[in-house]
């Protein structure tokens, strides 16, 4: 988990969200299922992406092609791994609609469940990974309206593209060159990076907020699941909160 202070915030339009929760999130080690008891049918479809390494080389990251869907989330609930079911909207296919209304602890529950059931470790991406994966499909940052640094938030708000906040079925937005879908959609995705604000160093297990990524990056209180309802200090809040998992190892295939 990376802790990002305000001075290290990304260049994308950033919203600092008011009312950060004071409690912490403790993410423990996951016990992976081995042998015949593991269930590979829960594995999502992933694509291999190449990311730069700090040493100047490249590394591979296996990325979930689509955001976690309502059907995938409800399977986790039915298996006892997730705390609540998601409703199925009328005239929609739950296997083709992104799971939304998720807080950071909800995403941790799901990642731990699928890692345990499949016997393969999954995690949330960090913010830098997400931005690299999405760079080819996100719109270019427009020139600011105001040059005064104190009005940066106003420029970001006024020049931001007024994209539809409606949910679309998976695959309804752009596909990246690596084959990852909907990174530029109306669902902002949780990352594992802690937002420390002006506090600087902070115990990662007691982080009050985490970065979510979409058309811009936003620091969200870790218990927030509905950004339109929650307070936002700067700019317009994300439309929906969902998730996409990654793995540092190639996932197994059925029969392996």
TrEMBL record:
Membrane-crossing segments per the record: 12-32
Classification via SUPFAM superfamilies: C-type lectin-like
Domain Sulfatase-modifying factor enzyme-like: 60-246
Coiled coil: none
Keyword annotations of the record: Membrane, Transmembrane, Transmembrane helix
A Pfam cross-reference name: FGE-sulfatase
Name recorded for this polypeptide: Sulfatase-modifying factor enzyme-like domain-containing protein
Organism whose genome encodes this protein: Oceaniovalibus guishaninsula JLT2003
């Amino acid at each position: 988990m990376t802790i990002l202070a305000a001075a290290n915030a990304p260049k994308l339009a950033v919203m600092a969200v008011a009312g950060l929760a004071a409690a912490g999130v403790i993410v423990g080690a996951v016990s992976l299922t081995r042998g015949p008891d593991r269930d590979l049918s829960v594995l999502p479809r992933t694509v291999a992406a190449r990311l730069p390494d700090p040493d100047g080389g490249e590394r591979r990251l296996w990325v979930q092609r689509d955001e976690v869907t309502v059907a995938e989330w409800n399977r986790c609930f039915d298996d006892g791994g997730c705390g609540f079911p998601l409703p199925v909207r009328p005239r929609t296919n739950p296997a083709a609609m992104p799971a939304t209304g998720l807080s950071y602890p909800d995403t941790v529950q799901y990642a731990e469940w699928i890692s345990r059931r499949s016997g393969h470790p999954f995690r949330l991406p960090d913010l830098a990974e997400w931005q690299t994966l999405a760079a080819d499909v996100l719109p270019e940052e427009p020139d600011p309206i105001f040059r005064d640094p104190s009005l940066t938030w106003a420029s970001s708000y006024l020049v931001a593209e007024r994209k539809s906040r409606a949910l679309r079925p998976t695959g309804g937005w752009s596909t990246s060159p690596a084959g990852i879908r909907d990174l530029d959609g109306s669902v902002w995705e949780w990352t594992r990076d802690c937002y420390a604000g002006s506090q600087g160093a902070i115990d990662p297990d007691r982080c009050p907020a985490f970065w979510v990524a979409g058309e811009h990056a936003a620091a969200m209180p870790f218990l927030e699941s509905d950004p339109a309802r929650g307070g936002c200090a700067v700019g317009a809040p994300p439309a929906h909160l969902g998730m996409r998992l990654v793995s540092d190892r190639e996932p197994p295939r059925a029969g392996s």
